[in-house]
Structures are given as C-alpha cells and as structure tokens.
Amino acid sequence: MTLKEAIEKHNGLSFVFNELNISSPIGRKTILETNFSKDKDYLSSQYSIIESCQTYISEEINLKALKKVRGVLAHINDISGTVKQLEQNLILDDISLFQIKQFSIFCYKISSYIFDIDNYLEDNLKGKLNLPDLNKVIKILDPEGLMLSQFYIYNAYSKELAKKRQEWEIAKKQEDETKVNNIYLEIEDLENEIRERLSKELKVYFHDFIEAIRLVGKIDKSFALAEYFLDNNFTKPIFSTTNQINYKELSYPPLVSKLKELNKTYQPIDITLTHKPCLVTGANMAGKTILLKSLYLSQLLLQFGFFVPAKESEIVLVEDILCSIGDHQDEEAGLSSYASEILLLDNIIKKVKQGNQYLVLVDELARTTNPKEGVALVDSFLNILSQHNSFSVTTTHYSGITTQANRLRVKGFIPNDRQKEISINEISNQIDYSLIEDHEMIIPNEALYLADLLKVDKEFIEGARKLIKK
Question: Which run of H or of E encompasses 393?
Fold first, then answer.
C-alpha cells in the first residue's frame, strides 16, 4: 500500500499530507509513493533522517539554507522522461538538453546550500542525502561556464559550426538566398551531429540522473516532514520491547487544528494496547470514534516512516490495519448498514484467523441491531480476537459484555450546573475525554444529562427518566 492509496482511505492522513510544505513535484511524488512498511530497520533509518533534519533546521543559519533550497526545489522539474530517452539511445532535442542542464545546475546549488548535512546524520546514514556530483554534466552542457538556465548549440562545441554560422550571417547580409539556405542546411547537420554526440556523452551519467531524481525527492520529503512534525509536536516513535502499543498524549491533528481555529483546546489521551482485546465505552460525543481514528492515523504514519502525534509512543508493527468505522450503508449494492457492517466484520475475522498480527479498530459494533443480539455479537467478536495475536479496540454502548477484555471508559461529562443552558458547540467543554479503567462496564446514562444541558423539552426528558425508573 502506498501513501497515495492510504490517503484515499483516511481523511486524517490526507489532512497531514496537505499540511506539508512540499516544494517540488518530485518531492510530492516521492511522498505519495512511500510504501507502508513492516521493515524495522528501514523505518528506523527514516525516523533518524527526519530527526537529523529537525536538528539541522533548529539552527538559524541552516534554516536560511533550507529557504534557499526550497527556492531551488520550487523550480526544479522531474526529468525522468528525458532520462528515459537516454536509456533508449534516443537523440535529445534542445529542450531535453536544457532540462538536463537546468536540473544539474539546480542539484549543484542544493548541494552547495546543505553541504554540511552529513554532520547531522548518524554514521550509518551519512551520504544518504548527498546528491551525485553532476559537475561534469554541467561542463558538457555549459561549455562557456556561464551557469545560465538556458541551452542552445554553442559555437564552443565546434569550430566548423562557428565558421558556418559566420558565413551564414554574411550570406544574409548579401541577400544571397540560395547560399543562405545551403549554409543553413549544413548548420542543421552539424547541430544534429552535436546533439547526437552530447546524447551519447550524457548516457554515461544515466544512473547518476536516476539517483539524483530520487534524492531530490528525498531531500524535499525529509525536510517537509521534519518541519511539520517539529511545528506540530509530533514525536519519533520508539519500538516496543514488551510487544505493547503505548501512547502518551495521543492526538488527532485534524481536530486539533479545527479546535484551534475556534480558540478551543484539544484533550489528548493515554492508552495502552496488548493482545488482549480492548473494549471502550462512553457516552455519545465522548470521543470514542476520534480515539479509533487517532490510533488508525498514528499506525499509518509510523509504518510509512513518519513521526506520530503523541508526546511519547511505544510502537509495534502490524501486517495491516483492519477497521470498521462509520456508516456502512451501501446504497449501490442495496445493503443496509447492518448487512454492510457484518460483511466487513466477517472479512476482519477471516484475516485475523490467518495468524498475522493486525491492528483491529471497530466502532460501535452491531449498533444498528437490537440490544440482545448486539451484545451477543460483541461478545462473540471479542472472544475470537482474544484467541489471536492482534491488537484491537472495540467501542460499544451496550452493557452486559462478558468476554475478558481490557475495559476502558471515557470519563465523560464533568459535573455542571444544570440551570446553566449551553449550546451544542459548548458540549466538548463539558466532557473529560480521558480513559479510565472500568471493570464493571456499566454504561453511563448520560443521554438524559446531555439533554438537560441543552435544555431540551422538560416533559419529554422527565417522561423518559420515569420510564427508566420503572
């Protein structure tokens, strides 16, 4: 799975990607082609490169250098198509030769701006952000040494060409049309010979061009990630030594950003996951779905080689993330929400039974069926998960779940003066989103409390309260 494919599945990942300060088309392509990885060594190297880039840009002089690099990256083009022509032994035209010249000059400038980047990298990563030396390419395409972003067949390439061009200018002044046309044809032949020669000379550097394109993308990507993670308090994940997933102050960036716009504060959460199923309860609007989305996003980020939105994290790599979040109604297939959900759960169960380690996230399992059957389905699902080595979080509003699980509850509504009316936009201020252990698993009756806060029709609410007491 590439990042591009994952973005289509998770809005939070799309949010993070769109927030990145990517300067070049190559950098954008590089990030989108990043693969979901289970290779611990590879991921460790990616984390270390980002961390080194953060250290680099923490110094004012280097921040100025990065600004210059981005100025170059903003104008650099992906020359993969042109390089492909070299591989196919095609003769490059002037536009293609210009693209290679410009790209090589830009690579030279980038290297000169971050010439000391190796000083910030770990020993085993030194050279990982060093562009190939393309100075010989520049000399081939810039025989006059002017370092200008332009290209034509220079007189310096051929004394014979220079002579013919002089003769052509004289013929034009003499208005000898026949001579002008004949000399022009000779000039064209000479220029084509030079293009052919240059193309053969440049093919020697085919692999250098491929590597330079890759590294331009990696440099753009690494600094974009380093800067965003630094500015938004993302941290480097640490591989767990106890085979537990543990987060301290985990957050969900899209919601953090939205609340910031409203001058509100996001409340991060702490959570630990083991192979024992985790069951989370809490009132509506208590943040259970955001918890699942946060865990989903964080696992995606870390297995793409990125930092995570948490103060601290201990991570475990999984085969994949299996989730059931949101309304599953499939109108095109004519399936109800329940039918779509149950088929999705069936797929999750089949994969879990294969024995690989997954992260399973299920929101309000069987919420669209009757409570008696819903409880039975939740119990049965948790029982299956408990027999396999996957991490899981299942949220529910059902009481009476008997399967052994790590039971957590969103702490819920903070005591409030019910005489004070609040608006729907103020509800989040009335909830403590922290997770607490809840061995009794008695679902709090907070729906009526919420209705009280919102000053819903008193007869309606009191009638419901009396029915509960019967």
Answer: strand 391-396
Q: pLDDT-based confidence at 315, cuts 50/70/90?
A: very high
Locate 409 and state its tokens. 């509850």
Mean pLDDT of the chain: 89
Q: Taking 60 as the threshold, does the pLDDT of residue 104 lie above it?
A: yes
pLDDT tens-digit readout, 217-237: 999 999 999 999 999 999 999
**263 Ramachandran zone, left/alpha/beta (phi>0; psi -120 to 50):** left
Question: Given this model, what pLDDT does residue 329 score?
Answer: 44
CB atoms within 10 A of CB 417: 7
Q: Going along 109-257, which residue ranges are E strands? A: 238-239, 245-250
Query: What are the extents of the domains in the chain?
Result: 3-225, 238-469
For 204-224, b/e burial (b = at least 16 CB within 10 A) is ebeebbbebbebbbbbbbbbb
CATH of domain 238-469: 3.40.50.300
Task: Assess whether the region 3-225 and the region 238-469 belong to the same CATH fold.
Answer: no
Q: At what angle do helices 94-113 and 80-87 cross, to 10 degrees?
A: 120
Tokens of 3: 């990042």
Query: CA quadruple 439, 404, 290, 329: dihedral positive or negative?
Result: negative
* C-alpha to C-alpha distance for 408 and 438, rounded to whole angstroms: 5
End-to-end CA distance of the chain: 54
Instruction: State whether the Cα torsion 11-53-237-431 is positive or negative.
Output: negative
Beta-bridge partners for 245 = 273
- Render the burial of 99-127: b for 16+ CB within 10 Å, e for the rest: bbbbbbbbbbbbbebbeebeebbeeebee
Contacts of 21 (CB under 8 A, 6+ apart): 70, 224, 227, 228
For residue 75, how many other CB atoms are within 10 A of its CB? 11
The CA distances from residue 301 to 226, 256, 418, in Å, are 13, 17, 42
Per-residue pLDDT at 302: 97
Beta carbons within 10 angstroms of residue 162's beta carbon? 14
How far, in Å, CA of 43 to CA of 401, rounded? 38
pLDDT of residue 441: 58
Q: 3-class DSSP state for residue 1? A: coil
Q: What is the pLDDT of residue 357?
A: 95
Label residue 152 left, alpha or beta by phi (over 0 means left) and psi (-120 to 50 means alpha): beta
Q: pLDDT tens, 375-410?
A: 899 999 999 999 999 999 999 887 888 888 999 988
Q: What is the fold of 3-225?
A: MutS, DNA mismatch repair protein; Chain A, domain 3 (1.10.1420)
